[in-house]
Amino acid sequence: MSEYKMDQPVGASPLDRGVQGIIGEPLNRVEGRRKVAGDVPYAADHKVEGKLAVGVAICSTIGFGRVKGFDTSKAEAMPGVLAAIVDDPRIPRETAGFSDEKLVTGNDRVDSYGQSLGVVVAETFEQARAAANAVKVEYDPGEGRFDAGAGRGGARPLGDEGMVPDTTVGDIDAAMASAPHTLDRTYETPSHAHAAMEPHAAIAVWEGDSLTVYTSIQITSGAKKKLVNTLGLGSDKARIVSPYIGGGFGGKGGLGTECVLAAIAAKRIGRPVKLVITRQQLFHLVYRRSDTVQRMRLACDADGRLTAFGQDSIVSQNDGRPFYEPVPLGSLALYAGANRSFTTKAYTLNIPHCGSVRAPGEAVGILGVECAMDEMAEQLGMDPVEFRKLNEPEKDLTRNRPFSERQLVQCMEEGARRFGWERRNAKPLQEREGEWWIGRGMAAAIRVNMLTNAQARLRIEPGGKVVVETDMTDIGTGSYTILSQIAGEILGMPIESVEVRLGDSLFPAAFGSGGSMGAASSGSAVALAAEDAVAELAARMGTSVKDLTLKDGHAIAGNRRVPVGDLVAQKTIETTGTIKPGAMAKQYDQAAYGAHFVEVAVSGVTGETRIRKVTSVFAAGRILNAKTARSQAIGGIIWGIGEALTEEAVTDPRYGNFANNDLAEYHVPVHADIPHLDVTFLPELDDKTNPLKIKGIGELGIAGIGAAVNNAIYNATGVRVYEFPITLDKVLAGLPAEAA
Amino acid sequence: MREFQFARAADPAGACSAAAGAGRFIAGGTNLLDLMKLEIERPEKLVDISRLPLDEVEETPEGGLRIGALVPNADLAAHAAVRMRYPVLSRALLAGASGQLRNKASTGGNLLQRTRCYYFYDTAMPCNKRDPGSGCGAIGGFNRIHAILGASDKCIATHPSDMAVAMRALDAQVETLKGDGSTRSIAISELYRLPGDTPEIENVLEQGELITHVVLPPPPPGRHAYRKVRDRASYAFALVSVAAIVAVEDGRITSARLAFGGLAHMPWRDPAVEDLLVGQAPGEEAFRRAADKLLENARGYGGNDFKIPLARRTLMATLHDIAGGRA
Lengths: 740, 327
Known about the structure:
heterodimer; A: alpha+beta; Aldehyde Oxidoreductase, domain 4; seven-stranded mixed beta sheet; 31 strands; about 25% strand; globular; B: alpha+beta; 13 helices; 12 strands; Periplasmic aromatic aldehyde oxidoreductase, molybdenum binding subunit YagR (chain A); Ald_Oxase/Xan_DH_a/b (chain A); AldOxase/xan_DH_MoCoBD2 (chain A); AldOxase/xan_DH_Mopterin-bd_sf (chain A)
């Protein structure tokens, strides 16, 4: 069993030695054909033994207060109803996040609108839903704090409570007071929902006192722990199975209410229970991304060199929740400036609590930074790319440590070249096609790179088939494919000979999918296991690893070429690889970088924005699969465009609900909103990150793109919007009075 | 979804009699089924009319079209006569929903679709339309998509249809059949009601009265335009839409028909606005006066205040596009 701790830079990566030639190739997803044919089971699709009943969550219709009582008599008398359960103390109120130990339980009080209060089980979904609606809940409403505007005034400093402790370097106030060029601007972003395509769903099956839950969860081992903690089970009494996930984005990072409600209901009625959270319920039952207020302070000397760089934020959270949106996470090391301030305050909102949503920190934090950088460049009369290049720091000036690999400047230069940045007009309102103003903007992208504990098991079975097992998940990102490529590359196997099994808490524990660290962590574990297998194959060939070549399912040494299947005919090879983060994570500032370039057309009549062109260049370590990497990038870019233009979960401050709680009115981009996206990854190997020399890419694309859109809208129209999303009414308000 | 009775009608008369009492007609179901799942609609009985022979588009002796109530939106938008002679209708249809929904949605059902007001859609919220007397959640709440014309203190919802806006500009007639076998033809201008004190009553149809056809008079002279402004490029309801048919001869506007979506509880049309344009030379001044007239009684409710300048600008740009007169 190989264990590796990232305490020093890796030398040669096992992937550097592989000669199969499949790493980096734009291979199709190994399960892609089955997915599009509807032939893989998503959470609610699993076939289980026994007669399945269907549960529907009972959800609160007030935003804050106490529950005085329930009347389930009408619901229980309805057709097909098996149980209306409101008397179990383990009924969870909301979805748990990544770091929670268990779900918050107890239906005697309401923390937020739409929280779960119980579950109705019936023979059919329609019966259960109708009965859930018929449960009468008697409330004693309290004075909930639902109004963001009112709450922010009383925000309290977080100090070191947050993921990013408050940090100041030098004296930003003095720097602002003395600099010839300063900018002090506040940007706001609203609450966001994950809105994954596949809703949260679970099927719970009991065998005696052992529970199996088929669900859609990003981290099975973490979910299992939260499940047994919440239900009060022994740690070996639960199994989570989550092989296919229709999008998670952090919203399936912890453990959903559906798992606990289904388990409670299944135990109560003695039958397996399926429970799918409805789209409207999801908006309230799953944590949101916090709204943010970001005060950006920049100061420059006469030459445009930053002397101050600060981002001080206000975020919200419901009571008793330890997560705070880490707004400055990606900003800390982004630019130069001797005087720095990154602080965060938090205030209470009694609305669904906050948790991880794709790229916590950067997805919103880079908006403020990169819009402010654009404003400062304009103030200086400098090109935005040149201004950023001038302020490229030689190291992380906030935490005073070197970068591992950082190619931000190269990304900007290559992006500018591919995009045709020289066509940008220095001033707004210069270029017009009919009623449409044309503008161009850019922004940097950054996402911190992380590594976490992960383990994987690998077997070469008689016949030469390679089986990889880990409780890593594939949330649609391509985990099955890249892990197959890693094992295949190192073992010299065509990808068809590798079978990767994921998403089962019985498999060796990995972190799962989240924080863009799944590929690095699980991939390293698989590579380490494969390296051990290579050593064993070398031994069976009677040669050394150095003198062994593995390709196309054959082991080659000297003039011998033996099918790997023959080498394992007598005895299967089984190995386990374990990766652990180490000193590299502290010694070096590790991040993936990129640059977005956007061309927009803005209607001079209506203020509507159309994205016409996007060029993004990223540098994110070794790319394992050019196709799935690009898909990750464009998925992030598309979300980021939606974040820029439309996405907002709107709270009605009278009730504490999200008024636009479906995908008809919570607007994400549709095909017509998105042009061709030109995505490039620069060659990079980062030997400080992990044995694969890769970096996380799942959350990189979303970072910064919205600022590039905003900067392009300004470049087109001269209208600078400070409150995201940039809906047409906000642009319209600043457009010239003259119509088309 | 509550349990309900289901009957399939063999002919239009049978549909009407099956719907007598409390029955609701269902064709494509693209709106009604969603509302039933959320228990906003709780019909005791559904009468399936989807197989009735009302899916033809016929020429009328007068030179117009008679459109069966079950003609799918997609087919109507693609119909050669509609595309050639009523382009405003084809464009309005294609501006609505998605390809899949347009395949399913019927002509009659589109006319009678219900508002997308957030408060109508959440049964825990007050809504005089869904639950008369409970209040209007949108007034004082989130009202980005709401009405600026013809609203009341009981309801500020809008009608979401694009198709109906074009039909309003085309002076369509809605033909119906009642349970007693009688028929009537209702001008589309008379079909819808403003909310007033009874926002739950949205049109003049009686219980069990079936829309069988929509008749378009011969196409009016002039150029057609349908412009829809919304929060994304497709698959969103109109914040403001304009259906315009304007004829210009010898430098003067000779005919103008203007209908608006997204502004009111019904497709909005104001003859006084059109009268102001007829006889005028196309141009900024004439268009501004028309816009002033359209919006003279407009009222915003906070979140939708922007619709007033947006409607003005959209109208004027649309008029410029089809009637000219740009400086």
